[in-house]
Amino acid sequence: MILSGMGELHLDIVCDRIRRDFNVSVTLGAVQVSYREAPSIAASRSGHVDRTVGSQRHCISIMLKLTPVEDEGPIRDVEFAKTVGVVDKPVLEAVTHGILQACSRG
């Protein structure tokens, strides 16, 4: 059986109801997205975080600019235009991962 819904949570709820109401075993495969929104105009947003964890202060400011791309494929690349100071590679990788996850899931 193939189910369609408004999102992954919606599908999880339907599967749970099938299990509960009909006492049927349900196996979920990978979710396939048939429609994904994409930006039609450029947008930018900035944010600032200043926290102390333990005895170490962590301070970062970021400006994210999202621009539309010609092809309709998934976003595969994050470009860092400028970094001020020393930013560790794991931090840049975490930011890149977070951006790509947000773009793929909405």
Keywords:
two-stranded antiparallel sheet; alpha+beta; 106 residues
Specify Rg, calculated over alpha carbons.
20 Å
Helix content: 25-40%
**Which segments are poorly predicted (pLDDT under 50) over 5 or more consecutive residues?**
none
Mean pLDDT: 81
Q: Which descriptor suits the 3D outline?
A: extended
Q: Report the strand count.
A: 2
Largest sheet features: 2 strands, antiparallel
Strand order of the largest sheet: 1-2
How would you concisely characterize the structure shown here?
With 106 residues, the protein is α+β, with helices and mostly antiparallel strands. Helix content is 30%, strand content 21%. Strand 1 and strand 2 form a beta hairpin.
